[in-house]
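Handoff note, outgoing to incoming analyst
You'll be picking up this chain. Sequence as last confirmed:
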Amino acid sequence: MFFYGKIIIVGEYMVLIYLLLALVPSVLIGWYLYKKDANKEPKSLLIKLFLGGIGSAFLTFVLSSIANSYIPGIVPTLDGSVEYNIVGLFIRVMIGVALIEEFSKWFFSYYLGYKSPEFDEVYDIILYCGFVALGFATFENILYVFTSDNTIQVALLRAITAVPGHVCDAILMGYYLGIAKQYEMAGNLELRKKNLILSVAIPMVTHGIYDFLIMSGSGLLIVIWFGFLVFMYIYAMKKLKEVSKARKTVYQPVSNMPTASVYFSQSNNYRPTYNTFGQNSMYNGNNMVNQPVMPQQPVQQPQQNYVIKYCPNCGKYEPDANFCSQCGSKIR
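Most recent structure output, in case you need it:
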């Protein structure tokens, strides 16, 4: 997140117009993300996430200042005072811009969204990351709009590029956070950790490529940037629709993920169970038979419900405890 310019003094009505130009893209995208959610999330949580996105912009300022103090010049400047070769620019954009911004947004998405008790469907975390990104993008948009000499042009251009771009990065971030949560609930902490790393690394790469191409000043790379922008929009929307349509809970396994047969009961509602050897194989006597396994219908127990419990914080299997023996957290 970086910008250079002076504050433009405008009349009262122009201020309202500029604010609308800065806010409308975020409102429309936020409405679309919310509409795609089958089981609506609490509006109070979404507001908190949006404000967290604004907070991530301030965190970006702090981390950029710290990075620049330890590695002078790691955050690139756009005022023309410094010229970079193509490799130097790429490194600075990836570390000084993309990594810092995406980590800042990930931080708020993780602690406000991933750890929220409302997070029970994979699409939820994409929605959460999207609202954090919209908070960040809205704050950034307002700064650009009020520090630009060409306000209308800048606002319109960012409405179809930068703001959706932030959301595309957020969709990818949420996609991998959702997978991480599924592995966490299955007790596979190694793959949980891998996908947590990917939830920062993948958005960092797409964000970095976006910024590098447009900051390069090369006519050829600008043309490539347009193609990359279209590809990113299509790919992110494909992932969004895929997760939204599947309506998977975080308790359901990732495809081909080995997981124990589990009964989950919550308010007398049972979740489907899966074969120990995964969705795409089944055990038949002494042999493994490669054929789909349909979700088993849980056996109704008139006297009691059997619940296999996993710690929501560290993923440790605790069948008979109310508190995790590893981290001390309360178990659902």
